[in-house]
Amino acid sequence: MVVNIIISFAFGSIIGSFLNVLIHRLPREESVIFPQSHCPHCKKNIAWFDNIPIISFIMLGGKCRSCKNNISPRYIFIEILTGLFFSLLSTYYGFNELGFYAFAFFISSLIAASFSDIEHGIIPDELIFIGIPAGFLFNYFSNNLASSIIGCLAGFLSLYLIGQIGKFAYKKEALGFGDVKLAALMGAWLLPDKLLLALFLGYALAAVWVVFLMVFKIKKFGDTIPFGPGLSIGAIISLFWGGAIINFYLARCFN
Questions:
Q1: Distance in angstroms (rounded) separating the CA atoms of residues 61 and 50
Q2: Position 223 pLDDT exceeds 80
Q3: Which of 34, 121, 159, 173 has the least C-beta neighbours within 10 A?
Q4: pLDDT digit string, tens, across residues 81-102
Q5: 167-189: b or e for each residue (b if 16 or more CB lie within 10 Å)?
Q6: Average pLDDT along the chain
Q7: Which residues contact 33 (CB under 8 A, 6 or more apart)?
Q8: What is the reported pLDDT for 220?
Q9: Which burial class, exposed, middle or buried, applies to 138 when counting CB atoms under 10 A from its CB (0-12, 13-18, 19+)?
């Protein structure tokens, strides 16, 4: 068990390093393959020994070896975060199980979408248009394809309708279309029951975050606030603990 967790963390940190590339390049419509990794400040190529997840950031003191400019802490944060989620996932699925790699892909998509939304205000279409068919394919092999399609449609339609209601009420766009597509992706993976919980949690978390930003005057009413991270956190909570949460409330309601 411990060995699996350690290996999963290392694997996750490597994937997290690649997610950083996606977050930086996809919103800019740049290739994720060419050119090789380079410093965004001085444009010097990054040597392999300066590109080791987590370790290189620490050894370099969070600075570029060439120009000494600061490296965004987002890089090491995502490497650690992805490693932790993969470690948690390994306690549910073994390395020889499809579920581990499938849900590792789903979690990676959510992380990339969330941080793209935070930094650029964009959820790249590439993440959605690869993620939804992948969810269908996984659930096809799990004999849940029909539920996956229903979940995808439910996610899309529910947020689309909420967005239209908000647009009518506030006379402007209240919800980005990227969030609508992200909800469709979530539904394709989580299926309808866990999707409902994920959306509820996403809205609750977003509401708390908005209140915090308003109280401390970090944002004011009418400012654009990314919703993708809230949805993604709700999806991950629902993925790992959704069954237990749903069963707990059903037991309370019917006992």
A1: 11
A2: no
A3: 34
A4: 999 999 999 999 988 899 999 9
A5: eeeeeeeebbebbbbbbbbbbbb
A6: 93
A7: none
A8: 76
A9: buried
Q: Which of 119, 133, 145 is nearest to 185 (CA)?
A: 133
- As a whole number of angstroms, the distance between CA 187 and CA 198 comes to 9
Please give the C-alpha separations between residue 2 and each of 6, 58, 99, 223, in angstroms, as whole numbers: 6, 24, 19, 45
Question: How many C-alpha atoms does 8 have within 13 Å on its Cβ side?
Answer: 24
216-242: average pLDDT? 89
| pLDDT for the residue 171 | 78
Number of helical H runs and strand E runs in the chain = 8, 0
Question: Which residues, other chains included, contact 118 with Cβ-Cβ below 8 Å and sequence gap of 6+?
Answer: 226, 228, 229
pLDDT above 80: residue 218:
no
Please identify which residue in the block is written with the tokens 């600061």.
70
SS (H, E, C) 93-124: CCCCCHHHHHHHHHHHHHHHHHHHHHHHCCCC
Tokens coding 120: 């650029």
Predicted confidence (pLDDT) at residue 185 exceeds the cutoff of 90: yes
Indicate the DSSP class of residue 47.
Answer: P
Instruction: List CB contacts of 114: < 8 A, sequence separation 6 or more.
Output: 226, 228, 229, 232, 233
